[in-house]
Design a protein that fits this description.
Layout lengths: L1 H5 L8 H10 L7 H10 L2 H5 L22 E7 L11 E7 L5 E6 L4 H16 L4 E4 L3 H4 L1 H10 L2 E4 L9 H18 L6 H13 L10 H6 L7 H4 L3 H4 L3 H13 L1 H23 L13 E5 L16 E10 L4 E5 L10 E2 L3 E3 L3
Parallel strand pairs: 1-4, 4-5
Antiparallel strand pairs: 1-2, 2-3, 6-7, 6-10, 7-8, 8-9
Helix pairs in contact: 2-3, 8-9
Length: 352
């Protein structure tokens, strides 16, 4: 079997093909197919270069925000073409409840700049949040930045390595901002920073499919006055009176909590529908402490000198701790701990 599978005429074929080639060569025994399948499963080169598994391994776990501006997702978008002020990165934060967006163009993504952004755009405007979700970038994992969070009582939640779906709301907002900028800029790519206010305004005044409300209304209790209501006067524009408007605004604020509760119910129903659809195509993979696993080789960790010939999986590694929701802590066979957590989507069983 070894000669047929990986010898001079071998092609590291699958178990069924290996069994057919052995049979064609004139050899047979009762457990031929099972032995061939087991041999291929334990072949190290086959395991190392096997295609990356894209199917989800765990059920969809929705992130629920308990109240407005309690849970924020933060991420870095870029690099962009250098714009006015030498800015080329965009720091994005989104509230998981209202979908309100705060952004700031930056020339350098440093811990100090991120900390100033959180203080100025989130804390002093919308109060101290319960938690903030971010990836494992150096600007977020810095000790000074996390001390700043601890002093304010903010919980800092990190996503698993190379698993941005853990901060899905921020990733979705990044996609919206990027798409809108592309459509607005045309060939003037260097003007992206000047177009940001219009992109944000358009997003904040657009009803979201998950809540069926605009972020502006869930935040301030009323709908924003948009330019079309000025050019072609709307009913509220034509019949505006300061006295009655004040009463109307107070009435809108009185029912704001009710509107937010309704939006939360609608959002929860939407998440349940998405979960049912997502969970219908699962390929579960679970591991126990002590199991040996392969880890998918991300683009950032591939050996550039190997080019297209680089392996899709590296390892083996040992499961050190099994955490919740498909997250695992890994260690090398020597006992050296691998930093951060890794999602089961990027892991597969090692056969020896």
């Amino acid at each position: 079997m070894r000669e047929v599978h990986e010898g001079i005429c071998g092609s590291h074929s699958g178990g069924r093909t290996l069994a057919a080639k052995v049979l064609r060569a004139g050899y047979f025994w009762p457990t031929l197919k099972g032995d061939c399948a087991e041999f291929v499963k334990r072949c190290i080169p086959c395991q190392r270069h096997e295609n990356v598994i894209h199917a989800s391994t765990n059920e969809l776990h929705s992130i629920i925000s308990p109240w407005s501006f309690a849970l924020w997702g933060i991420d870095v978008l870029g690099p962009f073409p250098v714009a006015k002020g030498q800015v080329k990165f965009l720091l994005v934060a989104v509230d998981y409840f209202t979908k309100w967006i705060e952004v700031e163009p930056l020339a350098c993504i440093s811990t100090t700049n991120v900390q100033k952004f959180v203080w100025r755009n989130l804390v002093t405007r919308f109060s101290i949040p319960y938690a903030i979700v971010s990836d494992n970038g150096l600007q977020f994992t810095d000790k000074k930045f996390n001390t700043f969070f601890e002093n304010l009582g903010i919980r800092h939640r990190f996503t698993s390595m190379e698993h941005p779906q853990s901060n899905g709301q921020a990733e979705a907002v990044n996609k919206v901002i990027l798409t809108q900028l592309k459509k607005r800029l045309g060939t003037a790519k260097g003007a992206w920073a000047e177009e940001l206010p219009e992109v944000l305004w358009a997003y904040r005044c657009t009803p979201q499919s998950t809540t069926r409300e605009t972020p502006f209304r869930l935040t301030y209790g009323v709908d924003a006055m948009i330019p079309v209501e000025i050019g072609e006067p709307s009913f509220r524009r034509q019949h505006f009176h300061e006295e009655s408007n004040d009463d109307s605004c107070r009435a809108e604020l009185d029912v704001l909590d009710e509107r937010r509760e309704k939006a939360q119910v609608v959002a929860e129903a939407c998440k349940q529908r998405m979960s049912r659809r997502f969970n219908s195509n699962l390929r579960p993979r679970t591991f126990q402490e002590g199991d040996l696993v392969w880890r998918a080789t991300g683009l950032a960790r591939r050996n550039a000198s190997e080019g297209k010939l680089s392996a899709n999986w590296d390892g083996p590694f040992r499961i050190r701790h099994a955490l919740n929701n498909g997250a695992y802590k890994l260690e090398e066979l020597s006992g050296k701990v691998i930093p951060r957590t890794w999602n089961s989507t990027h892991l597969k069983t090692y056969y020896s």
